[in-house]
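## Example record

The block below lists the input lines for one assembly entry, exactly as stored, with component labels intact.
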Amino acid sequence: MSPISIEDKLAVNKYDIDREVHISLREDVCKTCDGHYCLYACPASCFKLMEEHITFSYEGCLECGSCQIVCDKGAVEWNLPRAGFGICYQYG
Amino acid sequence: MKQRFNAIVVGAGPAGCACGYTLAKAGLEVLVVERGKFAGAKNMWGGVFYGPNLNELFPQFWQEAPVERYVFRHKFSLLTPDACLSTEFTTEKFGQPPYNGFTVLRSKFDRWFATKVEEAGAIVATGLQADDLLWDGTQVAGIKAGGDELPANVVIACDGVNSVLAGKAGLRGEFLPRDMKQGVKEVIQLHRQLIEQRFNLTGEEGTAWEFIGYFTRGLPGGAFIYTNKESLSVGIAVQLSALVENKITVNDLLEDFKQHPAVAGLFDEGKLVEYSAHLIPVSGMAMMPALYTDGLLVAGDAAAFVLGTGLTLEGANFAVASGVAAAETVIRAKQIGDFSKKSLSYYLELLRESLVLKDLKTFKKAPHFLENPRIYSLYPELACDLAEKLFTNDGRPRKKTWELLRQAMDGKVSFWQIARDLMHIKGAI
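Predicted structure tokens for the full assembly:
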């Protein structure tokens, strides 16, 4: 089995994607951060570093909670998606 | 849903279902709320359910529950980039009822468990999230969910590792990255016949195979492969703090692992059907929240009831046991009409008598011991190196095993260091 990119992995999952974003970043705080632990903590690579800015896309989130725990600057405003939305495991 | 419940259980995983089932069986009015579209929709794990706790609730549950395979073949391997040293254990006993463990896919299994809770008389409300607690002074008096206030005599928080409710009630502090392992898993669909050929299995037999070695790059963690009926569960769990401090993603490690020659061929012709992730609380007693307060109990992962002994991480059996203990506490509290903290302290008594706190106490030094980086790189390397020296026949005169071990250790580790680590094994696991 050849290596599979994270995007292709997420593409096989079933999600019910909400219009509401459930996790947001305090960009002013992110600007002062150089550790960027969130990049390595997210198993779904939802965090990206683009031209020195951290961006977050919530659609592929697996709701594990890692990002909030590793961010020692408190920049991750973490919530679960609204009930019924988000990842919907068919195997688990 | 304006009725007042005796108990509201938050979360329909193994802890919440075991709790809700026991309460409903005793005739209490119970509501179980689950934020997923169905029970199990948000849940994943490595994949083996061990122990008799579920059998106590549902004698011979395997006859009706959606289990995959019973674990007959236990394997453990140490990996270096090009070598693999394995031990394997089978016994006919594990192939006979009540069986020692089963591979299980949570999305199916939790759904089944929740139907048993409903059949016992509880209301299971899926697609409903407990956003906050309802307070009456200092007493928890229900939950707020979906814009409604739902009153109850007692709330049991079985809302998983990131327990929102234990946080809101102030029962736990902030989580630390070193207290968590991050687990990711792929489910790879594979023809049943191929699984049985490749893993030397017949009928309903299954394999649980754990690995440590080079693929975690010295970080505390390990990988696993479990056989389901028609799929493989392959995954890896690594300490969260070590990942971020070393700027490594767990998915990269999983991909490295899957390419190892000892396992790569197992996935041939397989098709990825799911990729999942979860945190595992691994610091045991050291990270445990307060387990109860006025009108509130905490069970399962929410209470950090996970046991890591080095070979495996076990939590589902503790979830069931703690869910039942919480239910028994509530049943007693209802009998005496007292849901105060003092009355609910009976929960702690029950847990202390059960395997949950006994095991966590026995292994309370294990989490620290298992952070030793030598376990994950140096020792697997030494073991494989020694094995290679033992098995190699290069036509030159043979050396004694002891001499080969000295050669393998040369410049890497001293006997003194190994002796110290062995002493820690004695204290920890």
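Chain B touches chain A through 58 residues (CB under 8 Å). The two ends of chain B are 49 Å apart (CA to CA).
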